[in-house]
Amino acid sequence: MAAVKRQSVAKPPFTIGTLRKAIPAHCFERSALHSAAYLMVDVALVAALYVASTYIDPAPLPTWFKYTFLWPTYWFFQGAVGTGIWVIAHECGHQAFSTSQTINDGVGLVFHSLLLVPYYSWKHSHRRHHSNTGCVDKDEVFVPAQREEPHEGFEWEQTAPARLAHIAVALLLGWPLYLAFNASSRPYPRFANHFDPWSPIFSKRERAEVALSDAALVAVVSGLGLLARSFGTAWLVKTYVVPYFVVNAWLVTITLLQHTHPALPHYYEKDWDWLRGAMATVDRSMGPPFLDVFFHHISDTHVCHHLFSQIPHYHAQEATAAIKPILKEYYQKDDRWVGRAVWEDYSACRYVAPDTKEDDSALWFRK
Q1: 234, exposed or middle or buried, with CB in 10 Å at 0-12, 13-18, 19+?
Q2: CA 258, CA 126: separation in Å to the nearest integer?
Q3: Strands 265-266 and 351-353, sheet pairing
């Protein structure tokens, strides 16, 4: 991996107000109709892909061809479209879908539940992630391991087989492990997860909403069980379960690469502030342009999203272009191919440590 220029950790010469004034006012406008149109297109694509999949098994083609080309093609595209629906439901949690909290939470609850996401539970923990990004003491997701100083010796985790195994587990199980066991998050004084209303992640006033999220998931899982009994387990696995895991893999890939890069700093709470933490993320294309469209540009406008999370995705590119000239050395964009970035950064970003034990005002990723 080529040498990277670290993001500045000095106090920025601008404020969040400076950035806000640079963004055209209409970028902050949220339209339920506009957002719903994007959502309905995604739903229509899901339906069209499902209908197309019903022609795979009856087709007079070799079985090996169906399972090495046709079904994987369906899984890839259905997973990509499903990820776009995930992103729109995520915008509901940020109140970016519309100006109505009732509409936002209603849409978010329905569509995140259909993707087996506990909407309110994740909404609350994700809000805290946005409030504490880059703080190793309080951030909620992809919190790196910390050391007092860099370690120069060889460690088995640096080997290619270990790295490959780590990536495979993260892509396949990283999202459910985070929800069920708080994996990769900050430590809590007792066991924490996204399904227990009394989990230390949540405040007392949030418990009822966590329980509502659980009830919605029970309803969806029950519905999936009925579908399996009606159409068969194999049908459910091919139609829903595999695309579900593809969505999870994209979600982990997107969020991992947004917050894991050798140029990005982390901070202890004593040195952290919200603005520098919010800027400690990176924009990137997810590959072919159609993927950025499917994903509603959640990855190539992520810096702006952390600064102004209520801007809807259909204004995020314009808003990003408006603030980049002000951000300058505080803006990071990675042009590497996604697969290469995942492979390289799992080696280059195993933990964070200060440059010296005497100055721990910023922590940097290390091999």
Answers
A1: exposed
A2: 14
A3: unpaired
Count of other CB atoms within 10 angstroms of residue 254: 19
d(CA 367, CA 352): 9
Q: What is the pTM of this model?
A: 0.95
Closest by CA to 283, choosing from 249, 266, 306, is 306
Count CB atoms within 10 A of the CB of residue 299: 25
The pLDDT, as a whole number, for residue 2 is 60
Looking at residue 247, what is its pLDDT? 98
Asked if 253 and 171 count as a contact pair (C-beta separation under 8 A), the reply is: yes
Beta-sheet pairing, 363-366 with 351-353: antiparallel
Q: Which two tokens stand for residue 190?
A: 């007792």
* Closest-CA residue to 201 (of 275, 284, 131, 128): 128
The pLDDT score that the predictor gives to residue 1 is 59
Ramachandran category for residue 142: left, alpha or beta (phi over 0 → left; psi -120 to 50 → alpha): left
Torsion angle defined by CA atoms of residues 91, 92, 98 and 99, in that order, rounded to the nearest 10 degrees: -110
CA distance 161 to 143: 23
